[in-house]
């Protein structure tokens, strides 16, 4: 391994593929960390692989978008070629799917939305990616989604670099027309997005090779199993979106990339009452892809938190009030929060003794709430917090009454029993107010 490439000092190797090696480096004049994609020495400089590599550099340099990996420089020294790119600290979607079986519907939709925004920008400029797959989708620790690897992208103004017998794309994520070798347009990328979205919410690919058919034959000829049959938690609205992306005939897919963006935005908006990047950061923290301290630093670093105006700008003060209410509302023995009903005096000696007893480490139990998509949490008639949150609610042992409220969904109520020293986890998927009747009509 070389120690320097251009004005960059190599720190170490990040990964390696069939055609290139990726290094982490420091661009010394600016002191910034970069990633360098180097063509392997075994690749001849006059080969089609080398031409694709150089074309990738030109494509990515011409695409300046927040959801596309930025190219900083391109170096060609006669022995090899190097693409110097921004360094993104995070995890690609391929590895993310190895960490968790499925992604929450709104998280998967946010990732798909950011990919589609990158594609819409590229499609407007006549560039088709042709290799959308989890390994080419990066999620940073800032909650940003970056589309990578334009190595086999095609520009309508340039000749194609297809060689006879050379496969373009990854079979499991190809569109039917891509498999047949037909002329492609932006709708081929949308088919691939649909496959990625399906995999995110179900934990499996829609087309898998078996003894009867290859994966490419299945993509061309077979209907995939509906997402809700694989995972009943997939909302019908999202199922319809991914199904339209994966229509066999391009004419039956979305007429524009923006139309897909609009549908994804409509799906996400009522489910994610905060900044989308912040939601991704919280998800990465929850599955262990980043530490609590990293997430806290990011969420508290000035990144936009919420999309609900004054209500969310008061979030920190609300949490502080919750802490106070918990101290005022928790009683020993029977366990109900009495403050809302006004059945006791919080200044009394009796209440003070009950409160201290309930919060002793050897007396308290805990409640953790996981709600899809989100809800205001009421315990024993008193609003305590808004999900999503990793915060545990300390409660006295005994029976408590839980209510989850989201204005766009049906209210959910549940009784929970808290035991000393234990954490009771409650997971609830809310049903849209209009979902039942509308979906029955659609299915008919």
Q: Structural class, from secondary structure content? A: alpha+beta
Distance N to C terminus: 62 Å
- Number of H- or I-type helical stretches: 15
Proportion of residues in β-strands = 15-25%
Number of domains: 3
Let me know the number of strands.
Answer: 18
Walk me through what this model shows.
The structure is a single chain. The protein is 35% helix and 21% strand. With 444 residues, it is α+β, with helices and mostly antiparallel strands. It folds into three domains: 4-86, Phosphorylase Kinase, domain 1, CATH 3.30.200.20; 90-286, Transferase(Phosphotransferase) domain 1 (Transferase(Phosphotransferase), domain 1, Orthogonal Bundle); 314-429, Carboxypeptidase-like, regulatory domain (Immunoglobulin-like, Sandwich). The protein has a six-stranded antiparallel sheet, covered by helices on one side. Strands 14-13-16-17 form a four-stranded antiparallel sheet. A three-stranded antiparallel sheet has the order 7-9-10. The N and C termini lie far apart (62 Å). Residues 157-167, 302-356 and 436-444 have low confidence and may be disordered.
